[in-house]
Design a protein that fits this description.
Layout lengths: L6 E8 L6 H11 L4 E9 L6 H6 L6 E5 L6 H10 L8 E5 L3 E3 L4 H7 L5 E9 L9 E2 L4 H10 L1 H4 L19 E3 L1 E2 L3 E5 H7 L11 H11 L3 E12 L3 H4 L1 H19 L1 H20 L3 H11 L11
Parallel strand pairs: 1-2, 1-4, 2-3, 6-11
Antiparallel strand pairs: 4-10, 5-11, 6-10, 7-9, 8-11
Helix pairs in contact: 5-11, 10-11, 10-12, 11-12
Length: 307
Amino acid sequence: MTSGAPRIAVVVVTYNSAEVLPGCLRSLAEGARGTRLARVVVADNASRDGSLRIAGEATDLPVRTVQLGRNAGYAAAVNAGVAELDLGALDAVLVVNPDCRLRPGSLAPLAEALRRPGCGIAVPRLVNPDGSLQPSLRRTPTVRRALAEAVIGGGLAGRIGTLGELVTDPAEYERAGPAAWATGAAMLVSTDLIREIGPWDESFLLYSEETEFALRAADRGWTLWYEPSSVFEHIGGDSGVNPTLAALLTVNRVRLFRRRRGSAAGSLFFAAVVLGEAARALAGRRTSRASVMALLLPSRRIRKLAD
């Protein structure tokens, strides 16, 4: 990180985001107060709703648009956006969803966190549109945590010490500190880290790509830092109501764990996740039913995203 105001670029990934993109773009100038906003790249996954037109009309920002030509996924769009930047002229890149709104001055605390030795990623406090906390921090995935979440649910497991993967205790969100990984809706990433560990893994299409990126960074000695004085509003929620997206999220969780921990531990993790999703499917949850089908029947898994 250079001395003086940090130089930051923003990569916004869009896919039919016309309804939410204007609010995101309007929040960037005030959100970047205290930093130097060098570039905004809108990387678009073949939107058909005017998202690119909206980006082009944001003449008060240094916007550049990138068209991927297809719905290539979140990681591919992030990589395409980063490829448009001169990383040598920047200190950090904010990767952000179009349904996020930056509170005034919210980028500066994240940039300050990146000045900590070894800190490569800084994430904000996420809140829902009504201002309530949106749990976004995660612990390292383990078989024990997957089993605990299967038996008693992620919300309760997250409140019992470090039993759950999802951090749900509101008190944990009141203090800054390191985390294993966090929701990828908003992440400020050091350009030093980007140059060292390379691009995001495009094989995940959507979900778990931020997990893989953060854990890969940790493997190389980098820290992810949570900074509650930085606040972003995040609408979100699609994977909680859309069975197809929920199934993709669940399958990608298992894929990533197996890749990192091997087949033996991966099989145990798979069994724990199936147990939890099957129990919730029997209770009538449509997203869990879709997840079980995708886990047990490879033919039901998503191989590419629809345009």
